[in-house]
UniProtKB/TrEMBL annotation:
<keyword id="KW-0040">ANK repeat</keyword>
<feature type="coiled-coil region">
    <location>
        <begin position="191"/>
        <end position="225"/>
    </location>
</feature>
<dbReference type="InterPro" id="IPR027417">
    <property type="entry name" value="P-loop_NTPase"/>
</dbReference>
<dbReference type="InterPro" id="IPR036770">
    <property type="entry name" value="Ankyrin_rpt-contain_sf"/>
</dbReference>
<keyword id="KW-0175">Coiled coil</keyword>
<dbReference type="InterPro" id="IPR002110">
    <property type="entry name" value="Ankyrin_rpt"/>
</dbReference>
<feature type="repeat" description="ANK">
    <location>
        <begin position="81"/>
        <end position="113"/>
    </location>
</feature>
<keyword id="KW-0677">Repeat</keyword>
<dbReference type="Pfam" id="PF12796">
    <property type="entry name" value="Ank_2"/>
</dbReference>
<protein>
    <submittedName>
        <fullName>IQ motif and ankyrin repeat containing 1</fullName>
    </submittedName>
</protein>
<feature type="repeat" description="ANK">
    <location>
        <begin position="114"/>
        <end position="146"/>
    </location>
</feature>
Length: 463
């Protein structure tokens, strides 16, 4: 090697030692694959853009922003004492490494252990060449460390103290102003890139939400077809018809289709959940995608839902929307004293079944449960309620159905003495509750607004 190349190689090796000692384990592993030749891999590692290209980072605005961020992550990484590679290069007296680091975005006025700047450490160690390299790049000799001293005051050589004392501070001011402009430019570029990425993520979430809704619609139709075939099979068995075996085979086909569509729907919801997670991480302050409401573990279901200990549900004024991905709350409520309706079962969704289930829950003071499972059936529930009586949905959601015996309008002459006016007692009707259950991790926004979200949390004993 020529003397010039030897000096360049020495500088690069010094810089590599500074850099490598500050890389995280992941960064070290990332760079170690290049550790074959002691010189060439080092030259390659210093060009972070080459690594970005290898990993598919483009050269558009988004790519440029990411490349700059990756470069700064390496240049500005810190050790346990908050010292950067530039600080270590300054303390070690390596002017070539100092120049390379600053030219690649290192902050010449960063403070590490004990509030000491790179200039402070270079002056303290008596590295004249390092000090002379730092000053023209904006290293500020006026900055104090935690001990209350400036670089001039702790300089170990008189010549160093003289240089720092006679340095033209206007040059520093000019460089600091230039650095500030550059930082603002970088911040603006990152802001624009982040806004563009957020817009892209929002569009992705919107598209995945539509896909999930389409899957839910197909699943809902499959459930309806399954129940239709079950009803037809039961009818054939009651009438002892010869085609019972055919209808049973049709039920198995429908069950297979339901299971297939259920898996597709779960996968669509998982994709949507991950996309929403990425969006929240992109804009944690503005995303607002975290579901607000209550959280309840399985052992607390009785206290939270049925007893309403603490009166949180009553004070909120909305009926609970039970977000129950694993079906624990649905199983619990099905075997309690509730009027439980499976909204995917056509028999449970008949007008008379819903009307009597509601009347019975009011009459005996117990919960009416609409279990929607994986499908959003709330619109169907509302349609059926409005079909029973116009304005019933609002009366139910607002709890006005409990006022002035409003519920008596639901009674029909054929219901018998069990539902006569004298059988409805205030001490019981005031215990009436309405629960809506869904297995979807992210229910529609309408439900989150008109109902009180209660997220069911699994504990170890619940598996």
């Amino acid at each position: 090697l020529s003397p010039k190349d030897q000096n360049k190689t020495l500088t690069l090796l010094q810089l590599w030692r500074c850099l490598f000692s500050y890389l995280s384990p992941l960064q070290r592993g990332f760079f170690s694959v290049l550790h074959v030749n002691p010189i060439l891999p080092l030259l390659f590692c210093l060009k972070v853009s080459d690594l970005d290209t290898k990993n598919g980072v483009g050269t558009d605005e988004k790519g440029k922003s990411l490349r700059l961020r990756n470069l700064l992550n390496v240049v500005e990484c810190t050790d346990a004492n908050e010292n950067t590679p530039l600080s270590e290069a300054s303390a070690g007296g390596h002017p070539g490494a100092i120049k390379l680091l600053i030219q690649n975005g290192a902050n010449p006025n960063c403070k590490g252990a004990f509030g000491r700047t790179p200039l402070y450490r270079a002056a303290f160690a008596g590295h004249l060449a390092a000090v002379e390299m730092l000053l023209p790049y904006g290293a500020d000799p006026r900055l104090y460390a935690d001990d209350g001293n400036t670089p001039e005051q702790i300089a170990s050589l008189d010549s160093l103290a003289a240089i720092l004392r006679t340095w033209d501070i206007t040059l520093t001011e000019s460089m600091l102003q230039t650095m500030e402009i550059e930082q603002q430019r970088r911040a603006l570029m990152e802001k624009k890139q982040k806004e563009a990425e957020t817009h892209r993520m929002c569009e992705e979430v919107e598209q995945l939400a539509k896909e999930q809704e389409r899957c839910n619609k197909e699943l809902r139709q499959a459930y309806c077809e399954l129940n239709r075939r079950i009803t037809k099979h039961d009818k054939c068995q009651r009438k002892k018809m010869d085609n019972a075996e055919i209808t049973l085979h049709a039920i198995h086909d429908a069950e297979s289709l339901v299971e297939s569509l259920r898996l597709v729907t779960e996968k669509a919801e998982e994709k949507l959940s991950l996309a929403r997670l990425r969006l929240r991480e992109q804009t944690p302050a503005e995303a607002g995608d975290e579901i607000q409401g209550m959280k309840c573990s399985v052992p607390e279901l009785n206290d939270v839902l049925l007893k309403d200990v603490g009166g949180k549900i009553r004070l909120d004024g909305r009926w609970p929307l039970i977000i129950d991905p694993f079906g624990q709350a649905a199983t619990f409520l099905r075997y309690q004293d509730t009027n439980y309706l499976n909204t995917l079962n056509p028999n449970d969704m008949s007008l008379d079944t819903i009307r009597l289930a509601l009347l019975g829950a009011l009459r005996y003071g117990k919960p009416l449960v609409f279990d929607m499972m994986e499908v959003n059936m709330f619109d169907a529930v509302k349609r059926q309620l409005e079909e029973i009586e116009q304005g019933l949905v609002q009366a139910l959601l607002s709890r006005k159905i409990l006022e002035n015996e409003r519920y008596l309008s639901l009674v029909r002459p054929t219901d018998g003495p069990e539902y006569s006016q004298t059988e409805f007692q205030a001490a019981r009707t005031e215990n009436f509750k309405l629960f809506v259950i869904t297995k979807r991790h992210h229910p529609p926004e309408e439900l989150l607004q008109i109902l009180l979200p209660v997220q069911i949390l699994l504990t170890k004993g619940s598996w």
